[in-house]
From TrEMBL:
<feature type="compositionally biased region" description="Low complexity">
    <location>
        <begin position="10"/>
        <end position="29"/>
    </location>
</feature>
<dbReference type="InterPro" id="IPR000195">
    <property type="entry name" value="Rab-GAP-TBC_dom"/>
</dbReference>
<keyword id="KW-0175">Coiled coil</keyword>
<dbReference type="GO" id="GO:0031267">
    <property type="term" value="F:small GTPase binding"/>
</dbReference>
<dbReference type="GO" id="GO:0005096">
    <property type="term" value="F:GTPase activator activity"/>
</dbReference>
<dbReference type="InterPro" id="IPR035969">
    <property type="entry name" value="Rab-GAP_TBC_sf"/>
</dbReference>
<protein>
    <submittedName>
        <fullName>EVI5 protein</fullName>
    </submittedName>
</protein>
<dbReference type="Pfam" id="PF00566">
    <property type="entry name" value="RabGAP-TBC"/>
</dbReference>
<feature type="domain" description="Rab-GAP TBC">
    <location>
        <begin position="70"/>
        <end position="255"/>
    </location>
</feature>
<keyword id="KW-0597">Phosphoprotein</keyword>
<dbReference type="InterPro" id="IPR050302">
    <property type="entry name" value="Rab_GAP_TBC_domain"/>
</dbReference>
<feature type="region of interest" description="Disordered">
    <location>
        <begin position="1"/>
        <end position="29"/>
    </location>
</feature>
Amino acid sequence: RLLETDSKSLRSVNGSRRNSGSSLVSSSSASSNLSHLEEDSWILWGRIVNEWEDVRKKKEKQVKELVRKGIPHHFRAIVWQLLCSAQSMPIKDQYSELLKMTSPCEKLIRRDIARTYPEHDFFKEKDSLGQEVLFNVMKAYSLVDREVGYCQGSAFIVGLLLMQMPEEEAFCVFVKLMQDYRLRELFKPSMAELGLCMYQFECMIQEHLPELYVHFQSQSFHTSMYASSWFLTIFLTTFPLPIATRIFDIFMSEGLEIVFRVGLALLQMNQAELLQLDMEGMLQHFQKVIPHQFDSGPDKLIQASYQVKYNAKKMKKLEKEYTTIKTKEMEEQVEIK
């Protein structure tokens, strides 16, 4: 509702601005607008939201650049919905009916609710509004997608959505993320997609940071020990919310690629320290040191992640390799049985 009033006031601002002949998010106006005051950023994002279909077709590159610089807090709810095309989903009408049903996952969901953002005011009180709406969205999803049901970790993503928007909208965005952003594959009981991501990420380390790769191998320090949560919660359990939310902005726009980029950038920045540590020391470093390296702001990390060489074709090739390896393994297991 706040957003509606925001966009109404923005429309009136836009009306007066539109006649001034300034082009919509042209690359020059985008960069100059961004260097101006926050007010200009509001006007710019207001215009993007109001003319979304047009902007997305004609100015995709500029929108991508703007998202990388961070979506203003008040626009996140609507921009996230637009980025994943969740604003007019038929499933939204089923939401209230789903809440009346019983899910086999309810006990599991209840058990984990208190562990989701335990420090955050919205979620920390038992039976608070935050915990209630989080339960509702997780339950509704478990009924819509019975194969996945409920998977631990997904509550952090839903929790972040609920910090930005009402529960029906959060539910629709979550459904979209599961369907179109590979999250459903990551959260399936077999977790095969997570295995693939670990394989691809490990190959990236081997290629870009060979010394660190050898060190990890010598310490039996497996990629899944530190990077699983990066992929399953898009860094929401790694970094404080202001940093993780900026990464999530980019995830909404560009998908899982940003997780690979940020992950490799983190390893590059910490390589010297990690090479000095044994397995126990490295685990401590990932849990205690890395989460607070960017408390002054995420820009340095985001810039570093765009220095990372990410090759989409190579990733496809690695996916084929991984599938072949897994098929062979399964055939061998069948023979052994």
